[in-house]
Amino acid sequence: MVGEGILKGMVETARNFLGSYVEKERLTTVQYPEERIPQVEAARNFPFLVYDGPNWQQGMRCVGCQICEKECPPKCIFIEKSKDKKPDAVGKPQFYPAVFNIDISVCMSCQICVEVCPFDAIKMDVEYDLPTDDRFGGLLLNKQKLSKSNEYYHEIHPTEASAVDGALAEERAKVKAAADAKAAAAPAKPLAPATAASPVSPTGETK
Amino acid sequence: MTLTFLILAAITVAGTAAAMGMRNAVHCVLALTVGFAGVAALYLQLDAQFVGLTQIMVYVGAVAILAVFAIMMTHTPAPEQPPAFSSHWILGGLVAAAVFAVLAWAIGSSAVSMQPLPAEPAVGVQQIGAALMDRYVLPLEIMGLLLTAALIGAVVIAMDRKEDRQ
Amino acid sequence: MTQEADQIFVLAKHWLMGYVPAVAQPIASAVLSIVPVLIAFPLLFAITTVLERKGLGRIQNRYGPNRTGPAGFFQPIADGIKSLTKEDIVPLTADQAVHFLAPVLLVVAAFLAYAVLPIGRNMVIVNLNAGVLFFFAVGSVVELSVFMAGWSSRSKYSLLGAMRAIAQMISYEVPLVLASVVVIMEAGSLSTVSIVERQAGYTGIWPHWYLFTPWGLVGFFLFMVAATAESNRSPFDLPEGESEIIAGYYIEYSGFKFALFFLGEYLGMFATSGMAITLFLGGWAAPFSFLTWIPSYIWFFVKLLTLIGFFIWIRGTLPRLRMDQLMNLAWEFILPMALLNMLIAGIWHFMQPGVVRWLVCLAIVAVPCILLRQGLKRRKKFQVRTYRYAD
Amino acid sequence: MSSLQNYLLLSALLFSIGLAGALTRRNAILVLIGIELMLNAANLNFIAFWRYGPNPSALTGIMFAIFSISVAAAEAAVGLAIILAAYRHSRTTDLDRMNSLKG
What we know:
The complex is a heterotetramer.
Chain A: H1 4-22, E1 47-51, H2 67-71, E2 77-81, E3 86-87, E4 93-94, E5 97-103, H3 112-116, E6 122-124, E7 140-141, H4 143-146, E8 147-149, H5 150-156, H6 158-185, H7 192-197
Parallel strand pairs in A: 1-8
Antiparallel strand pairs in A: 1-6, 2-5, 3-4, 5-7
Helix pairs in contact in A: 5-6
Chain B: H1 2-21, H2 25-45, H3 49-73, H4 89-109, H5 125-134, H6 137-158, H7 162-165
Helix pairs in contact in B: 1-2, 2-3
Chain C: H1 2-6, H2 8-17, H3 25-59, H4 75-85, H5 96-112, H6 131-152, H7 156-187, H8 192-198, E1 202-203, E2 206-207, H9 214-230, H10 242-245, H11 255-280, H12 296-317, H13 323-350, H14 355-379
Antiparallel strand pairs in C: 1-2
Helix pairs in contact in C: 3-12, 4-11, 5-6, 5-11, 6-7, 7-9, 7-13, 9-11, 9-13, 11-12, 13-14
């Protein structure tokens, strides 16, 4: 018959129409602010800074090396390196970023900053609910807003975080072993190894 | 009644004068539709409902659109606008003015034109239809033939033949 | 009681007219007739937009708008506020006057068409002697406003859209008029009121609508297809084709003028649906004789909403046609069918009532359908599509 | 005031405007439109004479106007088709430049 295909199509849409009232599982959309789809583990959108331990200022992994600032394609990262040094998570004195800003209205979520970071200090977040009515200040995240704990990192990306933790622990152990060896070799000068070891980064030995 | 006539006449004359005087051809056609609509309103004013509505349907709905289509299809983006009026526009204008003068003189001096308005004739669409099917059936058939011939003729003339392209 | 409920608006008008001095009687009468139409149909437009969005959503297994107000039914108010407060951008090179006049002309023409639609018993603004002709004459003005919009924007997309729209509207106006000619032939009148009156009356419980005759059925089908194309709705929405020419002729419009285009388009759809109801579905008459106690205007709007629902259903189902398919459908199928339908109406008129009349007319309808099917089968040459990749 | 004379004068004016347009415009399409306008003026005359005539129920004026409108529509269609064909030939619709018999 002429028009058979049209009729079939119309029956199908009618079934969809009526079925969407009867069977809830037909509905493909979720009601966003109330319901959310659980995110897959590989989800990512904007970067954040990881810190170890309870205090975000003390435990910050970032040493202000500015590699990510240089590599960022849209130039959305702004870092001011500190003049002094503070002890980091393992108690070693390090430089730290005095200012660390990311303009997420410019960020394109390319993850290059994460790739280049030698300290595993910057990672990708999954938080996407970031609307604000202040278009300039509201989307410019500062150091405090960017800092999130390692526990949070474990929560959003468990596999990746465990791998990073393992690598970090391994490297710290190596550094510690090297320092211990040096300390054992030169027990006369107790202060020397610390100053000598400080420019060497945890990953420095792998290069 | 008089005021209505004056307003409609003013709209019609303004529309048609603009249609013949404006530079942009599309503006001319758009102004012309105002003139056509004014003439249609005058028909309605004269109790010729059927003719008035046919006028809108044919002139506004078909002829104006056709003219606009023709203008779009023959539009050549020229660097400098050629003058809108012909080189002997004074002569043409004089001829038109002379024609109007003669017609106006003839109308003014004619005794026929002073007739009073008779009572509204009871002429509906049904009477027109009956007349078309009865007394005017031969002209109607000829008109159908003419329109068919015009349709085919227009298509044949405007058809883009392959051998012309070369 | 039912009589009063049926005539409540007419009586209200008469009552109000009692307070108007004799000098202002004609103008007051006109205002009192026009204002309800100016209120009712934009309101229907608002309801239709939300119904359409919800309906399309459900067809696609979505919720549709459900945030603004109860179940999302205040959505049109939010839309209205949004379009009113938006910046009205006019392109720098646009023809300012024509650009402004186009949406105004469209809405005016769309509203004018309601002048001859009988919404209820004794409820029509003017009972013109040539009402149907008036309707189509006003409808042809819409084409002009579409052209004005497309041309004045000085944009390639809008010009393309306008050209498509005009070509489509001209092509489908012919079958639209021809499909309604059968009703005019049978009713012997161009007046919408007398066409509705001809369809009044019942055999048993069944009404005497023109839909329930072979030519009426075919005519209604052809009329609705042409009306869908005439109001630029899916599957004939090529002039707007969001995926090809973004929004067609009104791409350069923003803010309130854009909303006016939307309003004009929907009003045109309601008007053609209303004309279909008047011509084929008995106007304001009840569908069964035992339901005549329900007021006539309610029946009109029930039928109108049914047709609108049908339009939405079609829109949710069918994909957009290609330009050549569109033109082929108009000139190769609908136009010949409309002409044949006139022949059927003539045969029906002059044959004795009975089963034979039905059989003869149905046979004349069936033959072109079978021929069309054969033609479609022959033209349909499916082949395996070969994909080529760059290497 | 609104007598037959006014309609005749208005019609004469429309005719003259159409004539002026047809004689002075350079664009062939606008010349054709001027001719349409002249036909319209004649139609207005027909209707006015029908309305003011002694026997309006004879419908002669109306019939003449209807047939005249049909002829005008046919004329417009064929005329514009000819203009299109001429444009395709000489790439212009300017009547002052369409002056050679040989393409």
